[in-house]
Amino acid sequence: MNAVDYQPLFYELAEAERDGEHYQRLRDRLVTEHLPMARHIADRFAERGESVEDLRQVAAVGLINAVDRFDVTRGIDFLAFAVPTITGEVRRYLRDQGWAVRVPRRLKELCVAIDTARVELSRVSGRTPTPSEVARHLGIEVDEVYEGLHAMSAYHLLSLDEQSISEELNHADRLISDDPALEVVELHHALDPMLRGLPKRERRIVVLRFFRGMTQSQIADSVGVSQMHVSRLLSRSLARLRSLLDDE
């Protein structure tokens, strides 16, 4: 399957009147054509005890939110934005469904506050915030943030034990274990099977960009190619990942 470049459609969507029919047609098309990706993400949570159909509906809501919130002018591919947005929606649904009654109210509220802060900080910085940044944002001690993160993981909403696809992903997982970047973990889980299908250098570039948060210039220095070549390889890799998701 030839991957479609959706960036022009998102530019067109950004310029369209939100109340107009053209905007709605573009929005509906973007949602419909990315539904296979949302279903794929939902299906990866199928063993968590909830019905697949319910998970797919939640993932579809996450996809709609991703389409509505995506800022095409930031220069990132929609896939890189949509996957953590959709997985976050599913993860919150599972958390709400599986929240134990005996959990203290203070801890529940702390986890919700941490989750909200992480979303807000990620939106501003374009990356997953560290526990220290979340603590400063909320005006609490960093130990409290770790307490909340441990409470979230106690409900099996994350798995840090999966075998990674390469030495680079093993390194990313070790960083996450020390400094839990939850959206990055979800992105890893959702894309791991597809990343295996990329050539070694392209896989490394994707890992450096989206798992380690390096800029294209930093990646170029690390890999030994030009920044322009890194940009081309990233675009090609993301198109390949989208094509693989569509084929699922």
UniProtKB/TrEMBL annotation:
GO terms for molecular function: DNA binding; sigma factor activity. Gene3D superfamilies: 1.20.120.1810, Winged helix-like DNA-binding domain superfamily/Winged helix DNA-binding domain. Keywords: DNA-binding, Sigma factor, Transcription, Transcription regulation. Residues 30-99, 111-163, 195-242 form the RNA polymerase sigma-70 region domain. It comes from the Bacteria. InterPro entries: RNA_pol_sigma-70_dom, RNA_pol_sigma-B/F/G, RNA_pol_sigma70, RNA_pol_sigma70_r2, RNA_pol_sigma70_r3, RNA_pol_sigma70_r4, RNA_pol_sigma_r2, RNA_pol_sigma_r3/r4-like. One of its GO terms (biological process) is DNA-templated transcription initiation. It holds the Pfam family Sigma70_r3. This is RNA polymerase sigma (RpoX/SigF) subunit. It comes from Saccharothrix carnea.
